[in-house]
Design brief:
By secondary structure, the protein is of the alpha/beta class. The protein is built from 14 helices and 10 strands. Helix content is about 40%, strand content about 10%.
Length: about 350
């Protein structure tokens, strides 16, 4: 396992993080604790959860695991959670208002059984709450010792930039990370979001690094998924829905390129996809989302794996999202740069 800074903070985290969205739903408590144990044994430190994962059960499972482990293990892990999405049926049971976030954070601390979380992330933007109110609440939480660092999740480029600018202008605590969807099939964040993170010093914590299983090679163009897989149980599940991806030629070109590199390396396709992502600009840690210890074990094989320049180029070419000519395509790129002539 390798380690990097959590964005521009002084906190070090493992380059692979353990995502826990499956805990309490797809993975029972015993299986969840087995994953946590194996992750820590491998040198992993960053554990990511949220208050809405299995309606709070994920946090409870992590809390019971922490309580049952010795101090030296508890002190090594970096706990990240999130708040924003509905935790009840009332009009104030969601969003980034001070009222909701204060209650959501306290509830998360109670379920996790800790006095403070290392990284508290707002799960998505809230158009109904002034970002000044949200940042003031987060700043108070840091000053109260309930939160060490603040992060964002699922923000667009302009939302991220506005948040950082307001934090700087009001002298509020600055976010150190952004958690976006990012993988070889979903690279559009490179047009605006990645440059903004690089400019402002935010580290990326990509979720869905395997594209919901697509980048493991388990799905076929002429065979609908079946069995005990996420798409086998629900083919139209979320952003990785089978019919949504199946009809895109780029999907199969990317899968073929990943398979080719994996065969040449003698490693799994998942390890290739994770390695490519871990070495992208601004990435602090890649969030793994395994159902079983066996899946986690394979994913952990990406720790310390680095692709060659030629292998990376092959994957880059196959996964190029082919932006429109302007402003993200070649004409726009040319206009956003310049050569300084006459100087050596």
């Amino acid at each position: 396992m390798e380690y990097r800074k959590l964005g521009n903070s002084g906190c070090a985290v493992s380059t692979l993080a353990l995502g826990t969205m499956t805990f309490g739903s797809e993975t029972d408590e015993a299986g969840s604790h087995a994953q946590l144990d194996r992750f820590v044994e491998s040198g992993g430190t960053l554990i990511d959860t949220a208050d809405v994962y299995s309606a709070g059960v994920s946090e409870q499972i992590i809390g019971r695991w922490l309580a049952a482990r010795p101090t030296d293990i508890r002190d090594q892990v970096v706990i990240a959670t999130k708040g924003r999405f509905p935790t009840g049926g009332g009009p104030n049971d969601a969003g980034l208002s001070r009222r909701h976030l204060t209650r959501a954070l306290d509830a998360s601390l109670h379920r996790l059984g800790v006095e403070a979380v290392d990284l508290y992330q707002v799960h998505a933007y809230d158009p109904h709450t002034p970002i000044e109110e949200t940042l003031a609440c987060l700043d108070d939480a840091v000053r109260a010792g309930k939160v060490c660092y603040v992060g964002l999740s699922n923000f667009t480029g302009w939302q991220l930039q506005k948040t950082v600018d307001v934090a700087d202008a009001r002298n509020y605590v600055r976010p150190v990370t952004l958690q976006p969807q990012y993988n070889l099939l979903v690279r559009e964040i490179e047009w605006e979001i990645v440059p903004a993170c690089l400019s402002e010093g935010l580290g990326l914590l990509p979720w869905s690094p395997l594209g919901g299983g697509w980048l493991t090679g388990k799905y076929r163009r002429d065979e609908a998924p079946t069995g005990a897989t996420r798409l086998g149980e629900d083919p139209e599940r979320g952003v990785e829905a089978y019919q949504r991806r199946r009809g895109r030629e780029r999907t199969w070109a990317v899968i073929d390129a990943v398979r080719s590199v994996a065969d040449g390396r003698g490693v799994s396709m998942a390890q290739v996809a994770l390695s490519w992502l871990a070495d992208r600009p601004a990435v602090s840690s890649v969030i793994l989302g395994a159902r079983t210890v066996e899946q986690l074990e394979d994913n952990l094989g990406a720790g310390g794996l680095h692709l060659s320049k030629d292998e990376t180029i092959r994957l880059d070419i196959a996964s190029d999202p082919d932006p429109a000519d302007y402003p993200y395509g070649e004409p726009g790129q040319e206009q956003r740069s310049r050569k300084i002539e006459g100087h050596r």
